[in-house]
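Task 17 of the worksheet. Students: predict the tertiary structure of the chain below and write it out as structure tokens. Keep your answer in the requested format; marks are given for formatting as well as content.
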Amino acid sequence: MFDYHMHTVFSFDAQSAPAAMYAAAKQRGLREICFTDHVDLDGSGFPPADLRGLANAVRTLAETGASVRFGAEVSLADEACAQASTAYLDGLPLDFVIGSVHLMDGVDPYEQKEIFQQPKEIVYKKYLECIDSAIRSGFPFSVLGHYDYIAKCAVYEDRSFSLEIAPDIFDRIFDFLVANGKGLEVNTASWKDAPSWGLDILRRYRQRGGQFVTIGSDAHTPERVGNRLDEAIQLVRAAGIPYLATFRAMQPVFTQI
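Model answer:
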């Protein structure tokens, strides 16, 4: 069990120390974790994480024998965002980087709920179009984070995400990931307490040549560390995807499912 998406006090939206997050992971029997604090230079206005402070905290934990990795979650947008993010990360000994899209046409769906006045199919398709554009901005991420982030923010009675929303856009996204050696994240936070979704999407990713995924809880508190990762693994296995990936120095390490 690996949790490759979690946030700490070094990020603007979390308050827990890395040691507390690791203690929760150890208690839940996780084999390895990666801290991925936010670098959002996409116009959202949120301050980027103190990644040097996080790197020091990871180093201290690793010296005790903890299996922890140093990562970041970087917001994807346009070429200017990609250049600014690359400069911000320069010189850091990163193991792993999630590339995520948090703004839709410059709007944060977490803050601006009026966008959900339109039908779900329209809003979700527009978000996928933003992903399809942002992943081509030139930023060198490891995996695409939470393709269903918009569902996490949504106020619909049925927030679930399905392939039929926009299979052609999913194909373009997956083809880009596969052609460029990048993976897909299965992020359990978007489900919240609803039934899990994504089997049809993961099957399509596999059909388009996808070989590996990472899994993450997107935990911001110790209580959420490792949340529903067992369900994520079941979906990945059912989709026929052969490998879970962890990372060392930006290189994937594959574990067969």
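Marker's comment: The chain has a mean pLDDT of 97. The helical segments are 18-27, 51-63, 79-89, 120-134, 149-153, 167-179, 199-207, 229-238.
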